[in-house]
Design a protein that fits this description.
Strand order of the largest sheet: 2-1-3-12-6-13
Family: Belongs to the bacterial solute-binding protein 1 family.
Number of helices: 19
CATH class of the largest domain: Alpha Beta
Keywords: Signal, Transport
Distance between the termini: 39 Å
Number of strands: 13
CATH topology of the largest domain: D-Maltodextrin-Binding Protein, domain 2
Helix content: 40-55%
GO molecular function: maltose binding
Protein name: N,N'-diacetylchitobiose transport system substrate-binding protein
Shape: globular
InterPro entries: SBP (IPR006059)
């Protein structure tokens, strides 16, 4: 049995950019009604239809087993989530009972007092034993759980099989070999980046820190930056070595975001990139076409996998809900094995239940590298609303860009750590 309960959570959420947690009115009735309308907010999609079909099926199943209950699902735009959730927290009469939200928003919502704890629910839900432990950590703040991971996403190493075959190369087994391979490609094929590694691609840089034994920050009473520790500096050096004239020239690559880094690979400009399972369709449609494969991003030793950042969305219950038990029961249906599998088939979202992960990897080998990465252990960012300020100030991208443009690693990481600590205070 996988032990789901959080111990000390050392890592969790980036948050709504540039704003502190909203003030919350939690003057609810305290009732727990078993009938009536259960209000649900889910994020809208560019193509809502496949997601809506799965959700509607779950709703019908739930309503068929709950007399006198109607589930009212509303789809909200992701880019309006700040004002929608702030409004819901301050006006319980307008709030949903169940909501989908990004795991990087969790700490802000918890700091606002808007979300209900779900530890007891998870303890009583057998399927929770199958949740990936490291993914479940993204649903926790200060040792308590406030959401159920609905789906997740991780990044792995994409590479051009035709270029590797032409140059008689093998996929790198370590981060050291990754740099060597990237340099070899750019030397032999100067028209291509060895790897498209962006200066603004923070989620690609983080695994280099974690694989080297470093941390973004540590918590000992309060959060403190750890990126100027030697282990973190080692990882940062490894990443910034890729933004180099011999691999991916700084004048082109220091400004690349994650999306632009993947686009460079998809467009045939790079022999490798770090991309997510959610990037496969874009790569399939690009110049790389069928001439690519994916492997887990290696760690520092052969056979190891660098810990990836675990993105994804959670399902949670608002504290103001007067149908809390029904809300939890609906989450158990929608986040259960049956509908996680259907959501994968409809939207391509990676499931969070390991049994379902194994099923989809067996059925679709292209998913295997991402499932391997998930099951080897993922990581997250510090669980504090201060992370939104750190993110908004672009402290880490600025650090990477300065190093890529010739500034010293020691002095630059020290300055970045100072700025992070100012935000943590």
């Amino acid at each position: 049995m996988r032990f789901w309960r959080l111990a000390a959570v050392a890592v969790a959420g980036t948050l709504l950019v540039g704003c502190g947690p909203p003030q919350v009115d939690q003057s609810g009735s305290g009732a727990d009604k078993r009938t009536g309308t259960l209000r649900v907010w889910l994020f809208d999609e560019a193509n809502r239809s496949p997601k809506e079909k799965v959700v509607n099926s779950a709703v019908r199943e739930f309503e068929n087993t709950h007399d006198d209950v109607t589930v009212d699902v509303r789809y909200i735009a992701v880019d309006t989530r700040s004002e929608r959730f702030t409004g819901a927290f301050n006006d319980p009469s307008s709030a949903p009972d169940v909501a989908e939200f990004g795991n990087t928003d969790l700490a802000s919502y918890v700091a606002a007092g808007g979300m209900a704890e779900l530890d007891e629910m998870l303890e009583q839900w057998p399927a929770a034993d199958d949740l990936s432990e490291s993914v479940l950590e993204t649903a926790g703040v200060n040792g308590k759980t406030y959401g159920v991971p609905w789906f997740t996403g991780v990044r792995a190493l994409y590479y051009r099989t035709d270029v590797f075959e032409e140059l008689n190369l093998e996929p790198p087994r370590t981060l050291g070999e990754l740099a060597e391979t990237a340099r070899r490609v750019h030397t032999e094929r100067p028209d291509m980046y060895g790897i498209s590694a962006g200066g603004k691609y923070t989620y690609a840089m983080m695994p280099f820190i974690w694989a080297s034994g470093g941390e973004l920050a540590t918590k000992n009473g309060s959060w403190e930056s750890a990126i100027d520790a030697e282990e973190a500096r080692t990882g940062i050096r490894r990443y910034t070595e890729l933004i180099d004239p011999s691999v991916c020239p700084p004048e082109q690559c220091a400004q690349l975001t994650g999306t632009e880094s993947v686009q460079a690979f998809a467009g045939g400009k790079a022999a490798m990139t770090i991309g997510g399972d959610f990037n496969r369709s874009a790569v399939d449609a690009g110049a790389a076409g069928e001439n690519y494969d994916v492997v887990p991003l290696p760690g520092t030793e052969p056979g190891s996998i660098a810990p990836a950042f675990a993105g994804g969305n959670l399902l949670g219950v608002l504290r103001s809900s007067d149908r809390s038990s029904l809300a939890q029961e609906f989450i158990r249906v929608l986040a259960g094995e049956k509908y996680q599998r259907q959501m994968y088939e409809a939207m391509g979202y990676l499931p969070t239940l390991e049994g379902v992960q194994d099923q989809v990897a067996s059925d679709d080998p292209t998913v295997q590298p991402f499932v391997e990465t998930l099951q080897s252990g993922t990581r997250f960012v510090p669980s504090t609303p201060a992370w939104s300020e750190i993110d908004a100030q672009e402290i880490l991208p600025t650090m990477v860009q300065r190093i890529a443009n010739g500034n010293g690693v020691r002095s630059t990481t020290k300055d970045a750590a100072r700025r992070m600590d100012e935000a943590f205070r």
